[in-house]
Design goal:
The complex is a heterodimer of chains A (179) and B (450). With 179 residues, chain A is an alpha+beta fold. Chain A has one domain: OmpA-like domain (60s Ribosomal Protein L30, Chain: A). In chain A, 45% of the residues lie in helices and 12% in strands. In chain A, helix 6 links the parallel strand 2 and strand 3. The longest helix of chain A has 21 residues. Chain A is globular. Chain B is built from four helices and 32 strands. In chain B, the strands form seven sheets. In chain B, strands 2, 3, 4, 5, 6, 7 and 32 form a seven-stranded mixed sheet that branches. Classes of the chains: A alpha+beta (179), B mainly beta (450). At the A-B interface, helix 6 and strand 3 of A face loops of B.
């Protein structure tokens, strides 16, 4: 495996995340001003809550949305036999981390999945590494451990039942589900 | 867990009973695999004649003995049974056997038999095996069976004939477990654990779920199965009777609960647990349910399997950078890497002789089943299809069953350990995968005198 040292991989990811966050004004700018709002005087809290809660989830209360109401991506794809997050996914994951920090009563299940190549039990382990890559990112972004559960489905629950490289690409993924 | 063991067990039994009844009622309970397609046999298979048995009166339309026996022998790849329409005579008793009739047809062996109704609805079968060249009777047996045991009787006769001629114990009376997956990738996905005769006939469902099932393995007495079920939304290891109502969820830890494999004495279960961290190999003592940790490494350690003497485990690990097969001695923890050819070798199983290994081997990006001699380190690729996985050995070590794909659909296939014989067990519904060949089972059909 390429991630012989998960810690250093994670550090690298965090750095990338910071850089990405710094560069992409569209993804992070609308969200950031919300952080100080939480520190507002306590008397104001009920009023603030009313405004804040609907901004994190769609009407189904399960779909996490960004400040402009768009659903935040919940599926993150991986290279073959790898469990390293793509830098382009980190902005969305940071948004999920913010939502989970703001909503300490909410929790998520992170599913890890693989394509059909390789043995089934080995793929269970690989899928778990993918779920843990997402989980580790969120934990280091301040999400509480009790808010996250990971479960690997290995190659058992393909998103695309096909047997070509396009299907395999769609199946190598981690999926984040709000409970 | 062991304090509440009894209560747990009772709850398991009740739950198991309900599922068992459900399984019996399921419309899929009788869906067998399709007829076997033999792809390849040995170059010079042994010609044998299995004469249609003489069957008494009303039993005649139920018996298909000679056809089942001939087909058993044919799919071993080592025999070439004569078609009944090519036979010159149809003897059922010794006095009607004329060896010249069989010499002309180049048949090396001859099987004849007869079926009679016995007392209390029982059935008696007598059969004889002749060596044509030597003009000698070499095997003569009588079997007693219940109605409805025709297939058991036929497989038993195949076993006896095969062993007499080849010297290797026959495995035609064994069974296979496999997972049937339907509508995978949709919201209607259905997974079921099936048990069938080794030829794919008489399949029935042991457990069905909308969540994945995998890694089924037999207890050495053939009475129980351990497998992984996602029925709780995450994986757990389940222990269940093959024929009875008992069913129990053994583990449901956070993370992976996988790869359950019984020790050769049936008292322990090797498994993989990650418990939120790295996947590690554990051994559970089935008496007190205590866990013993075997590996301790940040790499992936998975797919344990026992050596035949029960003294060591082989397992897959990527601790060297790529998945390879390792062996650990259980008394000393001495660790040894077993595979060195290629960059993906996984899910190993040791042959009954303890000297050879079969496993999944990647070659030029394609997954095959390979065989390796542990002393000489030589590797032989046994299969030519792609995405081949889950090799499981027949108890006589002569053949192995594995999962592969045919026209985008998961099917089971069998290959002899020397790679010379191959056949497929197709399925007309869904994907079939995760096969597990049973040990030798207790005789369903008893011998009746000599």
């Amino acid at each position: 495996m390429q991630i012989n040292n998960p810690l250093s991989g994670l550090l690298l990811l965090m750095l990338t995340a910071l850089v990405t966050a710094g560069c992409s004004s569209t993804a992070t700018a609308p969200v950031e001003p919300q952080a100080p709002v939480e520190a507002a005087p306590e008397v104001m809290a009920p009023v603030e809550m009313v405004e804040e809660e609907p901004s994190d989830f769609a009407s189904d209360n399960r779909t996490a949305i960004d400040a402009s109401g768009r659903p935040i991506s919940r599926t993150f794809f991986f290279d073959y036999d790898k469990a390293i997050l793509e830098p382009s996914d980190l902005a969305a994951l940071e948004l999920h981390a913010q939502i989970l920090r703001r909503n300490a009563d909410r929790s998520i299940v992170v599913e890890g999945h693989c394509d059909e190549r390789g043995t089934r039990e080995y793929n269970l382990a690989l899928g778990e590494r993918r779920a843990q890559a997402v989980s580790s990112f969120l934990l280091s972004a301040g999400v509480r451990p009790r808010q996250i559960e990971t479960v690997s489905f290995g190659e058992e629950r393909p998103q695309d039942p096909g047997h070509d490289s396009a299907a395999w690409q769609r199946n190598r993924r981690a999926v984040l589900n709000y409970r | 867990m062991n304090r509440d063991g009894e209560k747990e067990r009772r709850r398991g039994v009740v739950l198991g009973m309900a599922l068992w009844v459900l399984a019996l009622c399921s419309p899929n309970a009788v869906a067998s695999l399709d007829t076997i397609i033999i792809d390849k046999g040995v170059d010079q298979p042994i010609r044998i004649a299995v004469v249609p048995f003489q069957v008494e009166g009303e039993l005649a339309d139920q018996s298909d003995l000679s056809r089942i026996i001939a087909f058993d022998l044919a799919r071993s790849g080592q025999f070439d049974p004569l078609a009944p329409e090519d036979m010159l005579s149809y003897p059922a008793k010794a006095e009607n056997v004329y060896f010249r009739d069989w010499r002309i047809l180049n048949s090396a062996y001859l099987v004849i038999g007869s079926v009679t109704a016995g007392a209390e609805g029982r059935i008696k079968i007598a059969f004889e095996l002749y060596d044509v060249a030597a003009e000698q009777l070499i095997l003569s047996r009588r079997l007693a069976l219940e109605r409805g045991q025709w297939r058991d009787a036929a497989h038993k006769i195949s076993d006896l004939v095969y062993e007499e001629i080849t010297g290797v114990r026959g495995a035609f009376s064994t069974k296979i477990l496999y997972v049937l997956a339907q509508a995978v990738g949709t919201s209607r996905a259905r997974f079921s654990l099936e048990v069938a005769d080794a030829d794919g006939e008489r399949a029935r469902t042991l457990f069905a779920s909308s969540e994945p099932i995998l890694s089924a393995s037999w207890s050495p007495d053939g009475e129980r199965v351990a497998y992984v079920s996602f029925e709780t939304g995450r994986p757990s290891i389940v222990l269940q009777d093959i024929d009875g109502p008992y069913r129990e969820r053994l583990t449901n830890f956070q993370g992976i609960n996988g790869s359950p494999v019984f020790s050769p004495d049936g008292e322990q279960l090797a498994m993989v647990l990650s418990r939120g961290g790295d996947p590690e190999i554990f051994i559970m003592n089935l008496r007190d349910r205590r866990l013993r940790r075997i590996t301790r490494h940040q790499a992936i350690d998975t797919e344990p399997s026992w050596s035949p003497d029960g003294q060591s485990l082989i397992f897959t690990s990527d601790r060297g950078g790529r998945p390879q097969i390792y062996q650990v001695a259980l008394d000393s923890n001495f660790l040894e890497r077993l595979t060195f050819v290629g960059d993906y070798n996984a899910r190993g199983r040791m042959l009954p002789d303890g000297q050879h290994l079969v496993f999944v081997h990647r070659q030029n990006g394609v997954f095959h089943i390979a065989w390796q001699d542990l002393e000489q380190d030589n590797l032989r690729v046994l299969t030519e299809t792609s995405l081949d996985e889950s090799p499981s050995l027949a108890p006589n070590g002569a053949m192995l069953i594995y999962a592969t794909q045919n026209q985008g659909r998961g099917i089971l296939a069998v290959v002899s350990i020397d790679g010379r014989v191959r056949y497929r067990l197709p399925s007309s519904s869904g994907d079939v995968r995760e096969p597990s060949w049973s040990p030798f089972l207790a005789d369903e059909v008893v011998e009746d005198g000599i």
